[in-house]
Design a protein that fits this description.
Layout (H helix, E strand, L loop, with lengths): L1 H26 L29 H5 L13 H23 L6 H21 L4 H22 L4 H21 L7 H17 L1 H24 L12 H29 L1
Helix pairs in contact: 1-3, 1-4, 3-4, 4-5, 5-7, 6-7, 6-8, 7-8, 7-9, 8-9
The structure holds zinc ion (ZN).
The site of zinc ion (ZN) has 8 residues, from loops.
Length: 266
């Protein structure tokens, strides 16, 4: 009963926050306030009625069009809502399975920020400070909550994870003079590295490796399909985010498998 209730709350809250992320994704890169004015149709400017602002349901009821001007609401709005709820589900299942419920609140905050950052980076080629900077104090609060609830205090491992990510991403930024990596990536890296490091240093390493692996695969795929040349700018933020997720979910499995392999060779 408690599990069902938690699942329902997780789903609705995940969709609702996803709906808010749409506001963040649209307004933050334009330097607009996310608090006011209330949501309006970008096309006709009519304020969105509360009954038309229910995640997913309203979009289906309105058949993807503005009630006032019939402007087709981009499918992306619904995708962001569903993606946020889906990522929350993955993280909640991970937290239950690994006995890390204390870390879950921070993971949900970080994941939602990452959903917004991914779309903004793809669209505007930057990771706004207005989203990245607040993650630093939130990270500290999240890790303190995790330490209290889960009873583990791996500060050293979090610092190492953070340092590795900063050194590698910052190093590339320095060496390529900002062409291979943006300053936004450098600012985001320590947060992702610290979060993975809190789980284990191995997870931080796997996550970093995964970010470059996914980046290479997508880069090659884009070139092969003729959608990019070798000099096309591809934002790296989405790959950092993907690496972070993969490091979290697969980190322990890959490190254990690797150690077992080394053990069998010795
Ligand atoms: Zn409209």
């Amino acid at each position: 009963m408690v599990t069902v209730l938690a699942a329902v709350i997780l789903t609705f809250l995940g969709l609702a926050v996803g709906s808010f992320l749409n506001v963040v994704i649209y307004r933050v890169p334009r330097g607009e306030s996310i608090a006011s004015p209330p949501s309006a149709c970008p096309h006709c400017g009519h304020a969105v009625r509360w009954k038309d602002n229910i995640p997913v349901v309203s979009w289906l009821v309105l058949r993807g069009r503005c009630r006032d001007c019939q402007w087709p609401i981009p499918r992306r709005y619904v995708l962001v809502e569903v993606a946020n709820a889906a990522v929350w589900w993955v993280l909640a299942i991970w937290a239950v399975n690994t006995d890390s419920l204390g870390l879950l609140p921070w993971l949900l905050v970080l994941a939602s920020a990452c959903v917004a950052l991914t779309i903004i980076d793809l669209e505007h080629f930057r990771l706004p400070n207005a989203i990245v900077y607040p993650l630093y104090p939130l990270l500290l609060v999240g890790l303190v909550v995790s330490a209290i609830v889960d009873g583990e205090v791996p500060w050293a491992s979090a610092l190492i994870g953070s340092g590795i990510w900063l050194a590698v991403i910052g190093g590339i930024w320095l060496l390529t003079r900002g062409r291979g990596m943006g300053l936004g990536d450098v600012k985001l890296a320590p947060i992702l590295g610290a979060t993975l490091g809190w789980v284990s240093v191995g997870s931080a390493l796997v996550g970093l490796f995964a970010a470059f692996a996914v980046g290479a695969i997508v880069g090659v795929a884009l070139i092969l399909r003729g959608k990019a040349g070798r000099k096309t700018a591809v934002p790296f933020g989405p790959f950092l985010v993907a690496g972070n997720m993969l490091g979290l979910i697969l980190g322990a499995v890959i490190v254990d498998g690797y150690l077992a392999l080394i053990g069998s060779l010795l």
